[in-house]
What does this fold into?
Amino acid sequence: MLKEKLKNHHIILASGSPRRQQFFKEMELDFEVRLKSVEEIYPSELKAAEISDYLAKLKASAFKNELEAKDILITSDTVVWHKNESLAKAANDTEAENMLKKLSGDWHQVITSVCFTTIERQIVLNSITEVKFKNLTLEEIRFYIEKFTPFDKAGAYGIQEWIGLIGIEEIKGSYTNVVGLPTQLVYETLTKMVE
It folds into this structure.
């Protein structure tokens, strides 16, 4: 399996997300978590996947000149895109409530870009999943925010949490992508990189 093919490589996951780290464990991959603080600012003209592609590459640039021959650095970024607007992480209860009101009763896109960097090359791929929320009541929205404080998540929600269980009517595309990492895409890309 892939773990065996990667035995001569060193995977560095540059993400503090417990969900992404858990996915790597569940895919049976050995990896090191290495974090660097990056100011996530992007040019205002970028839209949808252009934003997450840009930020995934920006996160990789923080490791410039640090990678060794067998290192594979993996950085990623998730964007929630709704009606030509990027819904980033909410700073407080009010922002989270406003985001969930926008998403209520409508479709949105969850876009995760993953950047694979070695000393020889860089590959950036993204996965787009369409998600539809039911009409959420204000009571449901406020209960979720109070109980789950979803301030570390794009769009102010986690599909794997209570709001996803009671509120998501339909999904088209990768489920793991909405959680934070398109695992199938990551697995296939790593397999091709070491063939």
